[in-house]
Amino acid sequence: MEFLEIGGSEPYRSYWEKYLSRGLLLIFVVDSADHGRLPEAKKHLHRLIGTNPVLPLVVFANKQDLESAYPIADIHEALALSEVGNDRKMFLFGTQVTEDGSEIPWVMQDARDLIAQLAADAQ
Ligand SMILES: Nc1nc2c(ncn2[C@@H]2O[C@H](COP(=O)(O)OP(=O)(O)OP(=O)(O)O)[C@@H](O)[C@H]2O)c(=O)[nH]1
User: Signal peptide position in this chain (predicted)?
Assistant: First the structure.
């Protein structure tokens, strides 16, 4: 399985749609503590998934270790995930990673298994 990580900053955004058309699923990572940018993340997410009505979507609400992080329910609301529709498989995980990557939380392992399954189903 091949993963392509495309940065979220402005200069990289033009690549999103280009590569998405060749992808088996979309993994969209947001910073749960960056409250100010969630509306922008929501806008881009909905624009992206609007190009393919059935592409499976996995959202990582990352940085859950930070005190200021929005809980999952708030991320769900902020990204308007209830508007994603019933034709698409959609999953939302609260995630966090350690700085040196030494610990892989169980939720990441579950997410990995799910992603592998979704990719296999899409092939
Ligand atoms: N506390 C905490 N910090 C994190 C977590 N994940 C990433 N970081 C830190 O956030 C900073 C930015 O991480 P990047 O992954 O480079 O940022 P990014 O937003 O993905 O950058 P682009 O790929 O350019 O969009 C780094 O200092 C990471 O160590 C997390 O779960 N918790």
Answer: none
Tell me if 96 sits within 8 A of 105, measured CB to CB: yes
Nearest residue (by CA) to ligand 1, atom 23, is 7
Rg (C-alpha) for the chain, rounded Å, is 14
CA distance 59 to 76: 9
Q: Can you give the residue ranges of every domain in the chain?
A: 26-122
Flag whether 64 is marked binding: yes
Tens digits of per-residue pLDDT, 40-49? 999 999 999 9
Cβ < 6 Å from ligand 1: which residues?
7-9, 62-63, 65-66, 96-97, 99
CATH of domain 26-122: 3.40.50.300
Q: Report d(CA 13, CA 61) in Å as an integer.
A: 19
In this prediction the pTM is: 0.92
Chain Cα centroid distance, residue 87:
18
Q: What was the pLDDT predicted at 106?
A: 85
* CA-nearest residue, atom 22 of ligand 1: 7
Angstrom distance (rounded) from CA 56 to CA 85: 11
